[in-house]
Design a protein that fits this description.
202 residues, 9 helices
Length: 202
Amino acid sequence: MTLAERRSTPMLWVPLLLITCALVLRWLKLESPGMSLLPNFSPWLALAFTGTLVLPRALPWFVWPLAMLGINLTVLGVASALNLESLAIYVMYAALALVASRLRVRLGILQALLGVFIGSALFYLVTNTASWMVEPAYAKSLSGWAQALTIGLPGYAPTWTFFRASLLSDLGFSAMLILAFNAEARVRQLNQMPWGRQVVLG
């Protein structure tokens, strides 16, 4: 069985377990003040990009933004779940998952982690730009936008620290997904994700 054929093998209990864990973590972060100890520490971007790379094709790429939308609607309500900042998050998860769905079997480990790094940086840029657009405390100017991307608002932690936390969690959870994928492939004597591949687009 090739790596491409393996993607079509129905092994949905693993991704469903991961989705359940991610939903529970998201719920706890929204409902429990104590969960604010790990701001921006989340598996969602790793699931959207790396999860789409390594999990079976039977689980479509758009499950990640829809799952996030569902939990936000349940906990926050329509107004908060569908504001500009939240919409930017769903769009970024969808975009990263869609890109990953086009790159299945084409990336090695280092390329996948590089994709996570780029995706995390773009996610931070887009979502903080959305925050700058809707937050009245930010000046609607180039300097206000730069403030939103670096030091943030007075009285809060600098926004770059949130990027650091999200980048570490994105890379960490992605590495765990790849490790689990390769460990299972080794046990089943299937092709593992190599360190690098020559990327052929199209």
